Amino acid sequence: MSSTSDLARTAGSTARVPVRVPTATATFAIAIAGYLGVNLSPYMITAVQTGLRLDVLAASWLVTATLLLTAITGLAVAPLCAGGRRRTVARIGLALALAGFLLAALVPALILPGLLLGGAGAGGAVAASGAALAAFRNPDRVAGLNGLSNRGVITIVLAVVPVIGLAPLQVFGALALFSLIGLVLTTWLPDAPAADAHAGAAVAEAMPIVVPATGTTRTAAVPSRTVTVAGFALLVVFALWAVSEDSLWAMAGVLGADLTGLSDEGLGIALSASTAGGLLGSLALILVGNRLGRAVPLVVLLIAGGILKITQGFVSDPTVFIVLFVAWNTIYAIAFMYFVATSAGLDAHGRWSGPLLAVYLVGSALTPVIGAAIVSALGYQGFAITLGVTSFVLAVPAGVIAVISGRLERAAAAEVAA
């Protein structure tokens, strides 16, 4: 049997810090630098075609390799970011990303090695920023702030880059610029808690149990391996969920055009409005914080998202498709932030929030291929049903893990208050 203080130490929540402008700006900026390649991938493909004179397939595979390197590197260095080397990882990663993307921007003949170096470096930024998100109090609100800053900046970048041009200098130069900004701000990246915060890790969850003889309530301990299992399960659930979500995003143009006659202009409206919906969702989460808990909102969001995914496979009107697509993407954005908050609540060191963001990139890099394969095998309706059912199935383990995350955080907060 262990005390509440053991629980608090295991959760690492005693070391959480309040949100301050320098630390929050550094964390969010580094996250943007790490994820910018994902958002600029369509522009990167065009820039690669221009610089190396490759066809679209070869250029796409190079960009996919870049994103996969970001994901693999992020997963590899994530354990270091849960300890005292977080800033070092961020600095080395961003320095490599700056060098690689700058090389790709200035020397078109060296785009291939430049992108691979830059992609690998970006993985350090993804892992370090993801781990740093767990250092703040109220992970739900912080996840909302991170989502708001990310989508806000990305919206501006996506609008500005095509205006200045899609040549290697502009596209890869933008990636280098944000890597430089992140590198400058690494000084303010929140530290991981001291290593001895893991002491007493015999406990990770506490459950109230009524003692029949006295009618009193005592706390029963669950071994810390429960949190380890929950953490790994969260990574698997999130990866599968992310693949199902991004597959729809990747196939949206084809799906909308073939089922409803959606035009290119209509697709542009759908994508732009989806970004705005994500911004509104971020604001809502910032305002709500943790008042609704995590489990119920996450389960509801996954079920609602599953319904919307299925529905999009059976509509024939382009306007209805756009409305459903925007609604789905708004829910997707909020659910994404709840997943981040859940991972942060499991451990303040960032043991799970660090690799979480890297896991997402694995699916993002492969979803165009995965989505096309499902459509080819099952058709559009079968594709939509498969994605929807995936959300329904994953809602159960996601809810259970969110319960564990919330209880850990509350117990540690109660220990601090005592």
TrEMBL record:
Highest taxon above the source species: Bacteria
Membrane-spanning segments: 21-38, 58-80, 92-111, 117-136, 148-165, 171-189, 226-244, 267-288, 295-315, 321-344, 356-377, 383-404
UniProt xrefs under InterPro entries: MFS_trans_sf
Keywords of the record: Membrane, Transmembrane, Transmembrane helix
Stored Gene3D superfamilies: MFS general substrate transporter like domains (1.20.1250.20)
Keyword Calcium: no
UniProt keyword Translocase, yes or no: no
Name of this chain's protein: MFS transporter
Species per Swiss-Prot/TrEMBL record: Microbacterium lushaniae
